[in-house]
TrEMBL record:
EC number: 2.6.1.16
Boundaries of every SIS domain copy: 365-504, 536-679
Pathway in which this enzyme or protein is active: Nucleotide-sugar biosynthesis; UDP-N-acetyl-alpha-D-glucosamine biosynthesis; alpha-D-glucosamine 6-phosphate from D-fructose 6-phosphate: step 1/1
Glutamine amidotransferase type-2 domain residues: 2-280
NCBIfam families xrefs: PRK00331.1
Identification of the protein by name: glutamine--fructose-6-phosphate transaminase (isomerizing)
Gene3D superfamilies, A to Z: Glucose-6-phosphate isomerase like protein, domain 1, Glutamine Phosphoribosylpyrophosphate, subunit 1, domain 1
Lineage: Eukaryota, Viridiplantae, Streptophyta, Embryophyta, Tracheophyta
Keywords from the UniProt entry: Aminotransferase, Glutamine amidotransferase, Repeat, Transferase
GO molecular function: carbohydrate derivative binding; glutamine-fructose-6-phosphate transaminase (isomerizing) activity
Organism in which the protein naturally occurs: Nepenthes gracilis
Any single biological process term in GO: fructose 6-phosphate metabolic process
Amino acid sequence: MCGIFAYLNYNVNRERRYILEVLFNGLRRLEYRGYDSAGISIDSSLSASLSRDPNSPLSLRVPPLVFRQEGRIESLVKSVYENVAATDLDLEESFCAHAGIAHTRWATHGEPAPRNSHPQTSDPGNEFLVVHNGVITNYQVLKETLVRHGFTFESETDTEVIPKLAKFVFDKANEEGDHGVTFSQVVLEVMRHLEGAYALIFKSQHYPNELIACKRGGPLLLGVKEFSEGIAASSFHDFNVLKNGKPKELFLSSDANALVEHTKKVLMIEDGEVVHLKDGVVSIFKFDNDKGKNCGALSRTASVQRALSILEMEVEQINKGSYEHYMQKEIHEQPESLKTTMRGRLIRGGSCKAKSVLLGGLKDHLKTIRRSRRIVFIGCGTSYNAALAARPILEELSGIPVTMEIASDLVDRQGPIYREDTAVFVSQSGETADTLQALQYASENGALCVGITNTVGSAIARNTHCGVHINAGAEIGVASTKAYTSQIVVMAMVSLAIAGDTISNQERRDAVIDGLYDLPNKVRDVLELDQEMKELAKLLIAEQSLLVFGRGYNYATALEGALKVKEVALMHSEGMLAGEMKHGPLALVDENLPIVVIATRDACFSKQQSVIQQLHARKGRLIVICSKGDAASVSPGGLCRIIEVPQVVDCLQPVINIVPLQLLAYHLTVLRGYNVDQPRNLAKRELLNELFISRLRLLGQVILMMLLLALKVKAYVERPQVNRDEDRTLLRTLQNVPPVEGPLEQEIVGQSAGEQTGGWQGEGVLNEETPSVLLPELAQTQLELPVNPANTEGNAGLEERPESPISSSRIPLTEVALSVSFISVRS
Ligand code: F6R
């Protein structure tokens, strides 16, 4: 995964030093996406002055400057300033208009080296420059063709074909007499030849002070900051904000993190869109693969209109504040992140005193889920562990068998997934390649696909039938912490929602809901163990290995605690099922190997006591996590090191128990001198693989066919006085096609916030304090939903809300087909 960023100032004077700093800062915000090399391009002096006259001949222009450096962003910054000093480049020179681009890389094609860093260039004169996030799958074929046309390549990247192709297209148009070929026409033609998943930003000497961004997969946002008077008051529905040509600064970024310090007015660029920034105007074109094909001419696609959204994210969210590291900040943020995860979703009190949960993105699908033959949790790493922690409560409350699948393993084995299954995809980023691949597989096999993700508009949010955002806020540390606890809480709420209002388990449901309300405070209490965990870390600093034993609800805690220790502290650590101890692991036990045993109060407590006895008998060096007041019961001879944690309802205890282990991993890492936020060899999201990309194209066609079929059956589904859920299941059985309920309704009945950002219907209906990264304009109209003040008190800040209204305005079906004809994924 890589990060791309661009900054364009129009009719606003900016010095070169300022432009450089904006670009560097953008990269710093994106560094978590990859950090083995980086690069930028800015204008040189002469090219800048001549750029004021776009008619000046190219031969008179000086190519833009390109700086590329191996290593982290700070190595790039250092090398740029060294270069500036060596070449006497004037940092105070002011530009009334200027377009700069930047890239942070996580190598896929070619080792980290300046030649493989971006911007990649068309030629020594840098006529076209490109920064790229994603993978071009047909680059070999394109490369061979371009080589035949005289191009020489200097990198091993898949990206280099793109600027070269742009130059080829531009030169060809000019040779054929089309001297007026526009930048967007060139890029649209380039896109027509590219296969894969990508987000791209182009800069060109031929089009000074212009930028083009486009994407097919890969997130990309445009930020707009205007300077003219009265703009602050302008409406987001006013398309003129993008069209008025007034002084402004424009930003392009892979992530909202890099925009929020400049502006909150953003546009989520959608797949297949080409965004042209020129003369203070933003033009958006929809890429249509068929247009211009075989007609020999460059396509002249009509522009489309889009309105801006407002970013509901504060700069503090992306700063470390008083913390030294993001991981530390995110661990300590958990009381708040859990509150925002639950806000507006728990319903307590009211006339009937009923307690329940409301999950807008799921409520229309609950009946289908309840009728599933099986629920399959699918995820990787921490997300898988979170699902494992939630499995027992889901099984208990739903009565439906729940199985677990590590995404890559499911795909490797092509494990059985059926139409009658509900497949739940758990992913913080919503962009993990293995999970997306499993999603494609489950979708092909006809399962109802449910997403649980932290990322609005991510590939999982867009390509599942329904789902729930965890709303944990931006997680920047590579090691997932607050997302893990929020995922467990969301899955506990999903279990409650599926359980419905059956009388038999009402008491249990009430206890879980009470536990949820109280959880943020309990997490605040357990965070007080910080110093104690630091002391423990000091004792373990030189260890080679750490075992963590858990069972029942806390088997997942053992796996996740061990994962945290190994990934950031770079210490070997294994999470183990305590029930398996005597079937092998016991052989490892001696007086040297530190072992953490999780023995908080639940149905497995006495079994864990017995495990402790056995380990103790073999002189095990034990650290026991137990409920407050249980020290004597778990450490009879007082020989174990005890960590006492607050007790909560059993199914939520994993949320509490993981916190000391997160703190331990954090302190161990700092004490051992390793990088906490960017552990060796790891970036936040893994890369998309090529097989997946090609298969996604196929899936796009399948879904398009499904939609056409869905439109045909729509009349049947919508006939009066008929249970739609039942009909859909019936139709699925009769037609032998995958379920279509979610996308059909989601795409046709449009304009909820979730829909606008490619999410789930109902999930976009947010209340005032919803911390979702993007709160698009139509969600804002729903901020005034009545909240029952009587019920918001004493609820740990969590609010009730009435049932979510969903807008029923419709969007044209042609747009539906277009928007799904490219299945979006990111790398
Ligand atoms: C560990 C960690 C990873 C991720 C895994 C899945 O701290 O972050 O194990 O959990 O790569 O990522 P998501 O949740 O984004 O699908």
